Amino acid sequence: MGIDPLDTGPLSECTASTDELLCRCGTSLHFRPESPLMDATPDPAGDPQLLLSSVDALPFDRIRPLDMAATAEVVLAEGEALLTALSSEQEGALSGRSLLRTLERQYDRLDRVYGLAHHFQSTCDSPAWRSAWAEVQPKITDFVSRWGQSRAVMKALETIALAHEPDRPMSLQRLLDTMLQSMRLAGVALEGEAADRFRAIQTELAASSTGFAQTALDSRKTWSHLIEHAAGVDGMPLNWRQLTAAQARKNGHEDATPEDGPWFVTLDQTIATPVLQHATDRSLRERIRRAWLRVGAEAPHDNSSRMARIVALRLEKARLLGFDTYADLSLATKMAESVDHVLALTDRVVTASTPLADQERASLQARAAAAGAPEGRDGLQAWDERFWSERDKEERVGLTDNDLRPYFAFDNALDGLFELVEHLLGVRFELADLPTWHPDVRAYRLLEADDNSVLATVYIDPYSRPETKRAGAWMMPLVGRSAALGADGAPRKPVAAICCNQSPPVDGVPSLMSFREVTTLFHEMGHAVHHLLAEADDVRQAGVSGVEWDAVELPSMFLDSWVYHRPTLHRLARHHLTGAPLPDDVIERLLAGRSHMGGGMLLAQAAYNRLDLAVHRTTEALEADAIHALANGQLAATRPLPPLPEDRMLCSFSHLFAGGYAAGYYSYMWAGVLARDAFAAFTELNGDRAAEARLGRRWRHEVLAPGGSVHPMKLFRRFRGRAPSEAAMLAWHGVPSPASTGT
Ligand code: ZN
To answer: Hey, which bits of 244-296 come out as E strands?
Structure first.
């Protein structure tokens, strides 16, 4: 944990959002067992039923790119027919609940094609899948966009929404409200010039975002620095020297070696971050830090005017839709009530964290001074903080991945995770013999502990396969719960996949996980149980579907909190050879590592919240320089060390200008507040296992099961008996909280 001074990005790398528009796809057939069925009846046209049948175990070993293409064709034809029927205004033919069911089915089938295509591309990449997807993807994107812009669809929904229906369930009302809202925010209600202008803005924004990301990338690549003398790499670890020597060989220094150099330094994060952490050459750290702050800010790769244009277009778009600012538009679809509400939370976090951050800074200054650095601020510049923080951490925490890995063999960690989930949620995992997409993948049935009835299916794909599987970790919802779309009148059961990238077992040695990988596994399981234990009836509200952007990480961060729970760690961590538990002093150091430099980390997060909201709360178009001044003003007001005058970090802040975090960066802090507060409800039970199990059942039925069918604030209040409080999140980072808190 802890914030990386180079990284303006997220604190977690999770990619479980279901609203992602998929743009790539592919899978490989190399692992597929020769299927007798396939060989006997070759089907050059592809079989849509393989993907669309309502079974709760998909035939992963038989789905081919051809089937994907055939399915897309069928589903799109159905969609077009529905759109035509709605547009022809056949009164009564498509209305009321029957229309809603038709729309649910249509959504589900499109989502299935998208989801599976994404899944195969992410886990089994190959040219065959890529070309299949390249063929169908533009058609699907075009259809989804036309659907979202269709007046006929909106009119049909409005008719249902306005109909007098005294027994309408709250969840159905919410579904109608959110569907209509998303159409209005897509500009469907605009007319004439406003509609034309809205479309033009959307097109320009899409192009500008792509241009922003590309320019930042190109700019980062233009900078490099060659170190020719060993003194210049003093302090740098061996793997960094190997990496930079390899870069040197690629760039014309054929004789470069890790031992003797030369070493080719770039602004790639894997090269630049370790310099700030470990290089004893202060001037090298300064050079890297200053270069980083100018990424995307200098010709020919200058994002300044593009950034200002994006901000201005967003404001104009918000105004067309009836909002005062873009931040108000962003918050309209989120859990947080308002911009003021988020800023008030941020202010309280700043007030609470500043004394600790000051202490942390003073201790780093003293450490630097003792090592001969200048006294005061001069001794601890932006390029010194991370270096001295690492030295401090080595002394206070002093744990490396390799110290911990032997205690976290994958099977032990998974057993510990299953045991925790079973204890809290009243379920049971049972290994199932089902077809998968790779021999490493395991399938499990999730059973109701009380009566062994099947609730759902989950696949776990733990190991890295660099040639065919993308990096990172994620949960992929594959089939959503639905009351109407099941077979034989029974609700359809959910299916999900958890994908991670830890090292595979080698020569009888099991996969030994880093502590971060264990945390990630728990995190993704948190998303998975949200999806798998859904009880909402409509697939658009089941599990993670329909959950507000800033609340999606609540169930995942809740579950990953447990890796820092002492009794859970005691059960979970066993030496893979001796069976010995993790020693108590190591557990204490792990806990110290969690909150190391926590005050400074929270201030950094708060600074980004403020900067993001300030930029997106402007009420008039500003020049780039004014926006930089606004952003740097927020940084200066929040963190002890003011930004350098040349700081142009906005020019490479892709989260805000090429990602989905515009006026939404606060979501990291927001979800942290919710999750740590929910977790605290369990630690307050002081280890009473029976009480934990009772509270866990409430967590399952009151928060996870309703999924997107109830507003998350309502769910949280019901579970906790009050509004969320940031006290637990502050304590998590070592910050004592003021007596009275509450969002
Ligand atoms: Zn996540």
So the answer is: 263-266
Compute the distance from residue 578 Cα to the ligand 1 centre, in Å. Answer: 33
Each residue of 608-654: pLDDT tens digit? 999 999 999 999 999 999 999 999 999 999 988 889 988 999 999 99
Other C-beta atoms lying within 10 Å of the C-beta of residue 559:
27
pLDDT of residue 31: 23
How far apart CA 171 and CA 714 sit, in angstroms, is 12
Rounded to an integer, what distance in angstroms lies between the CA atom of residue 94 and that of residue 85? 8
* Contacts for 699 with CB less than 8 Å, ≥ 6 apart: 424, 425, 558, 678, 719
284 CA from centroid of ligand 1 (Å): 35
Mean pLDDT in residue range 587-600: 93
Q: Which residues are catalytic?
A: 524
Characterize 179-188 residue by residue with b for buried, 16 or more Cβ atoms within 10 angstroms of its Cβ, and e for exposed: bbeebebbbb
Is residue 172 a contact partner of residue 273, using CB atoms and an 8 Å limit? no
> How many whole angstroms from 204 Cα to the centroid of ligand 1?
30
**Sign of the four-CA dihedral 324, 327, 330, 331:** negative
- In the chain the first and final C-alpha atoms are separated, in Å, by 24
Whether the CB-CB separation of 522 and 559 falls below 8 Å is answered with yes
Q: How far is CA 197 from CA 200, 330, 662, in A?
A: 5, 20, 21
Distance (angstroms) between ligand 1 centre and the Cα of 294 equals 30
Please compute Rg for the chain using Cα positions: 27
Torsion from C-alpha of 303, 307, 309, 310, nearest 10 degrees: 130
Neighbours of 587 (CB within 10 A): 16
CATH superfamily placement of domain 14-186? Endopeptidase. Chain P; domain 1 (1.20.1050.40)
Q: DSSP string of 439-480?
A: TT-EEEEEEETTT--EEEEEEEEEE--TTTS-SS-EEEEEE-
Q: Which of 604, 613, 639, 547 lies closest to 344, judged by CA? A: 613
Domain ranges across the chain:
14-186, 223-295
- Over the stretch 526-550, which tens digit does the pLDDT of each residue have? 999 999 999 999 999 999 999 999 9
Which residues, 6 or more positions from 338, have their beta carbon under 8 angstroms from its beta carbon?
A: 328, 331
Measuring CA to CA, which residue among 130, 18, 119, 14 is closest to residue 69?
130
Q: Are strands 454-463 and 474-479 parallel, antiparallel or unpaired?
A: unpaired
Contact 555, 707 (CB under 8 A): no
Given a cut of 80, whether residue 375 has pLDDT beyond it is no
pTM: 0.90
Distance from Cα 13 to the centre of ligand 1, integer Å:
7
| Residues 457, 447: Cα–Cα separation, whole Å | 9
Distance 607 CA to ligand 1 centre (A): 22
Q: What whole-number distance in Å separates Cα of residue 244 and Cα of residue 238?
A: 10
